[in-house]
């Protein structure tokens, strides 16, 4: 079976449990090829069919990231060798000494170069049968638009995009904004980082920030983050706010110069500290009319699209009041 990269094949359908629980680490190119191959699958079929893909089609997908290209032969050899060795780690129900044992699944049962009936050089991909539970006869699945990841440069961006797509699509019928809190340990395990980026500042700089930026730039989702700290002031979890980009609260347009720092870069403590510095309580008492107008404007902008307790809501009110103060009273 030979497939093309035409628009009708751009949606990859993957079971939610895989996107939320599977642990793996692929290169950006491997992840893009994987989504391309999954988008070629008819999930109604009983078993996987071998996909025989002309290398020119694979080249088109791999070259899109504009990274250094080492020549078709070199890249195809490198890709086939690498992807055939990659595994997926998955939690199981088997417990020994109180700890669940992990299972390991290969992506493919075979990756073999050959020629198709037209004489074109191709690579034959046969998905491992253990993946049928996640790619065939789907029950609760996410629709991943692979055209939204073509420009991404980070594997973490692609992996998180799929995760948040699954989380969002499960709840979008019931709410506009979806919240999900995930521990840092879970995020690290999902990406199989092991000893990489062990400090949270490194994890944030190299994993979270690029993923946050690329998801908001290239996809239909909008993502914001709030970092949660334990009693030792260490970040132990991340609360994600996920919505469609057409529904994103317009909080950034409400901020003054000082308030233009991204919401995702701030904690609740930082917002409260800045509010105190601006003396918002004093402002509310001295300029009640201006404060009411600021709250009204923020509510009109947000509508029902955001939880009033979300830091972005508080931050926007402070920003409105600060802007009014600068314009009408002076610094």
Automatic annotation (TrEMBL):
Gene3D superfamilies: Winged helix-like DNA-binding domain superfamily/Winged helix DNA-binding domain
Xref: SUPFAM superfamilies: Winged helix' DNA-binding domain (SSF46785)
InterPro entries per UniProt: Initiator_Rep_WH1, WH-like_DNA-bd_sf, WH_DNA-bd_sf
Ranges of residues in domain Initiator Rep protein WH1: 19-165
Superkingdom: Bacteria
A Pfam family of this chain: Rep3_C
MF-aspect GO terms: DNA-directed DNA polymerase activity
GO biological process: DNA replication initiation
Family the UniProt entry places it in: Belongs to the initiator RepB protein family.
Full protein name: Plasmid replication initiation protein
